[in-house]
Structures are given as C-alpha cells and as structure tokens.
Amino acid sequence: MAEADGYTPQVLAHVKDGIGWMIFSNPRRRNAVTYNMWLQIPGIIKQFEQDTSVRVVALRGEGASSFISGADISEFAEKRNTPEQVATYDAAGKAAGAAIAGLLKPTVAVIRTWCVGGGLGTALGCDLRIAAEDTRFAIPAAKLGLGYRYAGVKTLVDVVGPANAAEIFYSAKQYNAQEAQRMGLINEILPVEGFDDAAESYLRTIAQNAPLTMKAVKMAIRGALEHAAPAGLDDIDAAVSACFQSEDYAEGRAAFAQKRKPVFKGR
Known about the structure:
This protein is an alpha/beta fold. It has one domain (10-194, 210-214): 2-enoyl-CoA Hydratase, Chain A, domain 1. It has helices at 35-50, 76-79, 83-102, 118-124, 141-144, 150-160, 162-171, 177-183, 195-207, 211-225, 233-244, 247-258; strands at 10-16, 19-25, 56-61, 107-111, 114-116, 128-132, 136-138, 175-176, 188-190. The strands form two sheets. A six-stranded mixed beta sheet has the order 1-2-3-4-6-9, with helices on both faces. Strands 5-7-8 form a three-stranded mixed beta sheet. α1 (35-50) packs parallel to α3 (83-102) and α6 packs across α7. The longest helix is centred in the middle third of the chain and has 20 residues, at 83-102. It is globular and about 55 Å long. The chain starts with 9 loop residues before the first strand and ends in a 9-residue tail after the last helix. Its EC number is 4.2.1.17. GO terms for molecular function: enoyl-CoA hydratase activity. Pfam families: ECH_1. This is Enoyl-CoA hydratase.
C-alpha cells in the first residue's frame, strides 16, 4: 500500500552480531501489517535460514510506538471484504506465519508499547517474547466481528492455556506487561529506559550458544506440541467464514473507521 507522498509500508531486514532483524515498518499506523508486508515475510525468513551467520532471528516494529498493532484494518474494505478476498488475504498471512514458525533457528519477538491482534498472533509464532514494561497486549477480534482461524487460537492456547485464551478473546481487553507475563504471553519484561541495549544483550546471549543444540531443541519442542487437527475442523472453519460474511463484520469495520463503539446483532 504505497501512499501519495511515496511512503510505502514494508518489512526491513538486516543482520548484526549474529542477530537477524526483521523490522515491521509502517509507523504511521503503529506498524500495522499490510497485505504486501505479509507477502514479504517468507522471503526474508528464507534468507535468514540460509545465512549461517544468523544465530537468532528477532522481530520488532520500527521505532518505539508499537511492535505490530495488528493487520492494517484500513485495507479491509478493499482487500478483505468478499469471501474470495478473505481467502487470498488469509493465505498470505498463513504463509507468513508458517515461515516464521517453520524457521529452525531461535526466534524472539522484541515488543514495545503495543502488541495487538495480528501483532500478538505474530509474536506468538516466535519461540520467545520480550517486552518493554509499558507494553499493552490485546486481541480485539470480538470488538470487530472478526473470525479467528483454528491455528491461531490453538497457538494461543498452547502458550497461555484454555482459560486465559478464552478470557483474552471473550473480553477483548488490554493487558499490561505484568499481566501478560503472569499468563505466559511474554518471557521477560525489560525497562523502557535502555530498552534497545537490554534487548540486544538478551539476543546476544542466545546468539552465542551452540546452533546445532538450539536446532535440535527447537525440533523436539515442536514435536512435543504437535496434535492432530480436531474432528470438527470443518465446522470451525465454517463458523469463522460466517464471521466474515456477517453484518456484524461490516459493523465492526464501520465502527472502527468512525471511532465509535460497535453495535452487534449476531447476524
């Protein structure tokens, strides 16, 4: 999504001291991820996988305003409106998530200020999450009428357990860093002052360890979490699709754009 003045949201990548940095750059929208940004992620991950100098991959948002505030909802009316558009958009997001989850090197989400919706989903795809002490977390899908795919819900359940996952989705409220750590959403809280230095120190500790050991451990952890898809997966998918075809979904988008509280009718 390029804007009139040439500003283009994108995903940036560079390598420093054994750390492969993937930076979500859309600061005008608190680093919300556009469709084109989702498309860039698999290629960057492939480069990091092949680069033997990269020992750990760190995901972060540009600047200090946000990790990722979620998907760029301003695109939804144009790019995620019809069932066909939803399928295409979701395929790009799924491929990006699969690329991050499939990387056999350690991955760390380096989080500041806001980690919301699709941003939290992306962070949960990483092995570890570290956050500044002033960070806020939320999945506001129930305030927008969005459907959440089984894989995303399962990932959250695997990290925080079913009761915490239910509260996060049902309440759609914001949680502070201390609450997030208590639930297991994040591994470590870092100070706002000197955050970048503290984050790099954390990452260097990992980068200095044995790559083959970390690869083997990651493979074992992944194996321990594998479960067969539920028998009712088709019904779950149908329920999610019904969300995107509902009046409530249109109301959620309109309320977000108009900065008002949505009025849902369950249809």
